[in-house]
Amino acid sequence: MLEPVSAAHCVDAIPEVAFKKLLRSSVREDTATCPLRPQADSVKTARDVTRSTLRQWGLAELGDDAALVVSELVTNAVRYSRCTPGFYTGHAPITLMLLRLRPHVLLAVADPSDEAPTPKEPDFISENGRGLYIVETYSRCWGWDALDEGGKAVWALFHSGA
Description:
Blueprint lengths: L6 H4 L8 H5 L7 E6 L5 H15 L6 H19 L12 E8 L2 E8 L19 H8 L2 E6 L5 E8 L3
Antiparallel strand pairs: 1-2, 2-3, 3-5, 4-5
Helix pairs in contact: 3-4, 4-5
């Protein structure tokens, strides 16, 4: 099993990266959160929110790579949310979070599943199994953090250069 790597550790222990705090945070210009339903059309919503947020932050050049990574993270969250209590009653929330930590942008997707993300050897013929390979390829680093109330946040870090 892959041990979680703290996002704060990856960005030199920046104390602001506390997902519990971000999930409840008030509106800040360097943070965006978007609740998502555990259904397939949430992937498009997440891509659109990611691109528009990065454009607002003047970081449109990260849009394509970040949207691809967010697509993979949300797809995984939707898949694993279906196996958690509350899914059939609509209480299996997924949350997209974007945080600007100059010169980085952190993208995270929180979901109610406690199952650790496990990278697989990519099979380029299969239609699935390449998600975390894509996340690793397009981001500076990635990892996950367990949430105190259950579930996890899987994150990817991008260097914005701005």
